[in-house]
Amino acid sequence: MTRIPVAVYAEDPVLRTGVTHQLRPRPEVEVLDRQDHERAAVALVVVDVVDQAAASLLRRLRRSSGTRTGVVVGRFDQDALQTTIDCGVAAVVRRAEADQDRLVATVVALHKGEAVLPGDLLGRLLDHVGRLQRSVLDPNGPTLSTLTPREANMLRLISEGCDTAEIATRMSFSERTVKNVLHEVTTRLQLRNRAHAVGYVMRHGLI
């Protein structure tokens, strides 16, 4: 079996040592020393969060021809998903799930040209791609910025069957405020009523 050369990147020496310690005994992989990183077929970037420094490293790795990159991360949010997509990352593994078998399976998948994502992140990615497709097909169509968080929450509650009083109670607003906000949404989007508003925002993936 040809061992897959892997470079492990981590600013935190504890994180780097932990991942290296799990990978080194396995016959499927060859963990490279720093001076040999240019030989890597796969790069694993181990971070707490995908911050600016991590993004800079990921962009640099993307420019390295022949290297497939995965991220082992502690916390992963929507902004991080966008960053990893932009940086060409092909695998994301949460640190809490990064046992030896999972790490090796990720390296092997990356080497084969496959992508690895947790199920919930795959759902987010599909939603993201859907929004991009809609923006390409209809660049003037509604986006997430069409609604304020308060407006989106109110419409979500309407879609769950809540009336004005229930929305006011759940969101700690007066009923007058709820009515004013919903009136503003329907007027701004040129919609006929609340049902039309809910259908509109659900159809466009805004709630």
TrEMBL record:
A biological process term (GO) from this entry: regulation of DNA-templated transcription
UniProt cross-references to InterPro entries, sorted A to Z: Sig_transdc_resp-reg_C-effctor, Tscrpt_reg_LuxR_C
Domain HTH luxR-type: 140-205
Gene3D superfamilies: 3.40.50.2300
The keyword DNA damage appears for this protein: no
Domain of life: Bacteria
Alphabetized UniProt keyword annotations: DNA-binding, Transcription, Transcription regulation
Gene Ontology molecular-function annotations: DNA binding
SUPFAM superfamilies in UniProt: C-terminal effector domain of the bipartite response regulators
Keyword DNA-binding annotated: yes
Record's protein name: DNA-binding response regulator, NarL/FixJ family, contains REC and HTH domains
Phylogenetic placement of the source organism: Bacteria, Bacillati, Actinomycetota, Actinomycetes, Pseudonocardiales
